[in-house]
């Protein structure tokens, strides 16, 4: 079968190969024929080494497809079922799961160091244990989440990561209050989902911030009340909030610089929500006095900060009701052979989400 492979950390292009096979099928596993995969910025971060990932590996963690085969003991899905891929499944029994913080379950990360694929030259890993840039993949049963028949594969793929992350940051983690002021720094796919989450929550003013004009224009279509370039942010803060700062600021880039900017934009007693995935050696500096005196809440949000299965269901219902727009978030489509075009679309900022059609 075919898949896109990153051979070494730091390479900026993937090789599409046709001599790879999905391995590891057995009890508790599901073999999935992928139909659509979204390109998320986290895939680029894994390729560059910002996020830890053994190589060689198949990128992709946002996808949907059809179940081909189920292993012994799998009861939640059967062959022919439509599923989205969950890259962070909950085990249900660890301390985090028992506390109701299933998004903090670490069991899903255990599969990262286990090869999901094999080529004649040796084993190949998969990003986040999923590897959705392949025609087939084998995942644990908890990673194959059934979806209703009316949800297209491309929409389901988005819900599998970017939409759940952005909506959840606003609705689960920050719990944006109706009538509040919001700033969203970074308006790629996750940022646009965050804008939509703030709108669903009833925020009165939503200021989207991005250096790319097309993304600012997109943010306005998806619910931002205004969109500004980074150099215009200080003026917008003063105009929208009277200089006090925003009630909620979402950092959706993943760098200490933008996180520091987000902290400074947040009003005293307000909430900074960190959504972007950054590097382990990138340190955010805050002094002890400002932490104490400003009483700003700093809330990281991992995968939407809540139970992902409930979040998937909520996203589907909001989409069905027309409360969130998901199809319009897919600005580009490419076949698997064109995956490197998708990478350039993400790097240049012209794409919100590119769908890799498998």
Low-pLDDT stretches are: none
How far from one another are the termini?
A: 11 Å
Order of helices and strands: EEEEHEEEHEEEEHHEHEHEHEHEHEHEHE
* Strand percent estimate: 25-35%
Radius of gyration: 20 Å
> Can you give the helix content as a percent range?
25-40%
Shape: globular
Q: Total number of β-strand segments?
A: 19
- Seen as an oligomer or otherwise, the chain set is single chain
Q: What is the mean predicted local confidence, pLDDT?
A: 95
Biggest beta sheet summary? 7 strands, mixed
Please give the count of helices.
Answer: 11
Structural class: alpha/beta
What can you see in these coordinates?
The chain is α/β, with parallel strands linked by helices. It is built from eleven helices and 19 strands. Strands 4, 6, 7, 10, 11, 18 and 19 form a seven-stranded mixed β-sheet that branches. It has a six-stranded parallel β-sheet with strand order 14-13-12-15-16-17, with helices on both faces. Helix 8 (256-265) links the parallel strand 15 and strand 16. Helix 4 (162-173) crosses helix 10 (308-320). The chain starts with a strand and ends with a strand.
Topology of this protein?
Blueprint: E1 3-5, E2 15-17, E3 21-22, E4 29-38, H1 41-48, E5 57-58, E6 62-70, E7 82-85, H2 95-98, E8 117-119, E9 122-126, E10 136-140, E11 144-146, H3 153-159, H4 162-173, E12 181-185, H5 189-201, E13 205-209, H6 213-221, E14 226-228, H7 233-241, E15 246-251, H8 256-265, E16 266-274, H9 288-294, E17 297-300, H10 308-320, E18 330-335, H11 339-348, E19 353-357
Parallel strand pairs: 5-9, 12-13, 12-15, 13-14, 15-16, 16-17, 18-19
Antiparallel strand pairs: 1-2, 3-8, 4-6, 4-10, 4-19, 6-7, 7-11, 8-9
Helix pairs in contact: 4-5, 4-10
